[in-house]
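Journal club prep, notes for RB
We'll compare a predicted complex against what the paper describes. Inputs for the pantoate case:
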Amino acid sequence: MKIINTIADIQHYVAAVKATGKRVAFVPTMGNLHKGHLSLVKQAKLLADVVIVSIYVNPLQFGADEDFDAYPRTMEQDCEQLIAYNTDVLYAAASDEIYPEGSEKHTHVSVDILDCMHCSNTRPAFFRGVATVVAKLFNIVRPDVAVFGEKDYQQLTIVKKMVSDMCIPVEVIGAPTVREKSGLAMSSRNNYLTDTERQHIAPAVYRTLLQAREAIVAGERDYQAVRARAFASLSEAGIKPDYFNVSHPLTLQPAEPDEKDLVILAAGYLGKARLIDNLYFSI
Ligand code: PAF
């Protein structure tokens, strides 16, 4: 695996690959890789000849009281895993090239229409930070296709809209959420949980999503009642609910009762972690 740190070098590399007619797939990450990320790499391998993974812990997507400093940086283990998954290039972006004058003086990209609900309520700067860095990484790497996890459904929807609205020439693909045996969606922040929280409490998020889906498939159309029941189950399990919203899969607005395609987006707090998950389905 080639490790590239500078914009000039990655652009030179990608231009040379494309000149031979090969397709380039890109998987942006913040490192601390787990099976969820590696499934994105696997998916990327199926879509292109060359796979580039970036690792960059983006300061702009962390709030002042969030875990930017504590966010796990595990470059050595990440490299081992990427090599095992036949990654062609790791682009470990240098911070002074991403935000040369600091992140706040940089041009920002906002997808306001989708950044006013769900996670945006508790993490107001998060998606602006994600959209900005992803737009910049796309302009640097210029991949043909990019793969993002469906676990971060609002993020994926925002990236797709940004790409479509701004005519960025990249195809954005969502890859299915990878779960632990318990059903818990894999996430770097699961490392903040104790063993008991991880094994016995956190899986309640996915269980509650499945129960909600079952009720809706059985005919329930009162989505406020679905949310109230879900909040009660999460609280009973020991999770402090943040939101549990039955939504339209593209606009992310509250779903109308006659909607056929739905996504339920959920988030809650457990110990030091904020858990998010979602379930997309049709009725
Ligand atoms: O999902 C992530 O890991 C990050 O939000 C991303 C897309 C790499 C942007 O920093």
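Talking point for the session: The mean pLDDT is 98.
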